[in-house]
Amino acid sequence: QVQLVESGGGLVQPGGSLRLSCAASGRMSRVNLMGWYRQSPGKQRELVANLILSTGETRYADSVKGRFTISRDDDKNILYLQMNNLKPEDTAVYYCNAMVAYWGQGTQVTVSS
C-alpha cells in the first residue's frame, strides 16, 4: 500500500504561483511512476504531469508546458508541482498519483481575481 497526502492548494490571482506537495509513504520501493492529475467541475480527471522516478523523465499536458514543473525530493519522499503564471482555467482539485493505482485526497486550487 502507498499513502499520498497533498498540500499547498489555495486561492491565487491570475499570474500568481503555487507549489503543491505530495508526501508519500508506505511501500515506495515498488513505485516508479508518480504524477499530478486535476479535475474541475463537469470535466474528467486529466493528467497534468508525471515523472518516472528511475530516469527522471517527465511528461506534461500541453496546457501547462512551460508553466508547471514536476519534481521530487527523494530523501523526503515528497513530490512537488510548481505552478507559475496560473490561469483561471487551472482551477481544479489537484490529485497526487502513484503507479496509476494510488491517489491522494486532493487539494483545491482556485485561480481568480
Question: Summarize this, please?
Answer:
This protein is mostly beta strands.
Alpha carbon gap, first and last residue: 40 Å
Mean pLDDT: 96
Structural class: mainly beta
Q: What is the helix fraction of residues, given as a range? A: under 10%
Number of E-type strands: 11
Major sheet, described briefly?
7 strands, mixed
Strand content range: over 45%
Which blocks of ≥5 consecutive residues have pLDDT under 50? none
Shape: globular
What string gives the helices and strands in order?
A: EEEEEEEEEEE
Query: What Rg is obtained from the alpha carbons, in whole angstroms?
Result: 13 Å
Question: How would you characterize this protein structure?
Answer:
The chain is built from no helices and eleven strands. A hairpin with a 6-residue loop joins strand 4 and strand 5 (46-52). The termini are far apart. Strands 2, 4, 5, 6, 9, 10 and 11 form a seven-stranded mixed sheet that branches. A four-stranded antiparallel sheet has the order 1-3-8-7, with no helix packed on it. The mean pLDDT is 96. It is mainly beta.
Task: Quickly list its features.
mainly beta; seven-stranded mixed sheet
What is this structure's SSE topology?
Elements: E1 2-7, E2 10-12, E3 18-26, E4 33-39, E5 46-52, E6 58-60, E7 68-73, E8 78-83, E9 92-98, E10 102-103, E11 107-111
Parallel strand pairs: 2-11
Antiparallel strand pairs: 1-3, 3-8, 4-5, 4-9, 5-6, 7-8, 9-10, 9-11
